[in-house]
């Protein structure tokens, strides 16, 4: 079904901000863009990315959420200034049950499923998902999905 991508993001940001005390979600939105996809699933990905950003940045308040639109896709990026991810682990974080096992990471609990599920959902929507990160400085997780759903 068709939905307004920015509206979905801003509704979720509002909900998550209400239940988050320490972090400030700073969002900036592109012009309205309509996407044909499963809004519940895409919403699940957005929630995963933002809750991970909060979880892995206990010492810094700011989370930046940005939407962008191009001719044929919409993009969301979630930036945190938290613990970051070592280079060697970067391409593994989307694998099933993968959890980084550094000194910084072992105090956080989880199953290692969030990003795996996000990657599956984005793949099915015909999009891509990726991460840029510097250990000790923070991470930016992004995904892009086509404006018209690609049949797989
Ligand atoms: P789950 O989401 O299943 O509760 P999880 O958060 O450990 O558990 P994922 O969301 O799949 O699992 O993330 C995989 C791993 O990638 C995490 O264990 C963590 O080591 C690392 N990671 C994910 N997001 C971030 C982030 N924003 N900053 C730093 N490390 C991250
Ligand atoms: Mg997670």
UniProtKB/TrEMBL annotation:
<feature type="domain" description="Histidine kinase">
    <location>
        <begin position="1"/>
        <end position="149"/>
    </location>
</feature>
<protein>
    <recommendedName>
        <fullName>histidine kinase</fullName>
    </recommendedName>
</protein>
């Amino acid at each position: 079904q068709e939905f307004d991508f920015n509206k979905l993001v801003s509704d979720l940001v509002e909900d998550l901000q209400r239940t988050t005390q320490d972090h400030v979600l700073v969002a900036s939105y592109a012009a309205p863009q309509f996407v044909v996809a499963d809004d519940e699933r895409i919403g699940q990905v957005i929630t995963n990315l933002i809750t991970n950003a909060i979880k892995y940045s206990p010492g810094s308040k700011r989370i930046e959420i940005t939407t962008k639109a191009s001719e044929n896709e919409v993009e969301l990026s979630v930036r945190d200034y938290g613990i970051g991810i070592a280079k060697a682990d970067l391409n593994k974080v989307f694998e099933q049950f993968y959890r980084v096992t550094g000194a910084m990471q072992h105090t956080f609990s989880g199953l290692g499923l969030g990003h795996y599920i996000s990657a599956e959902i984005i793949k099915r929507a015909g999009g891509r998902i990726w991460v840029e990160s510097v250990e000790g400085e923070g991470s930016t997780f992004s995904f892009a999905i086509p404006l018209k759903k690609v049949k797989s």
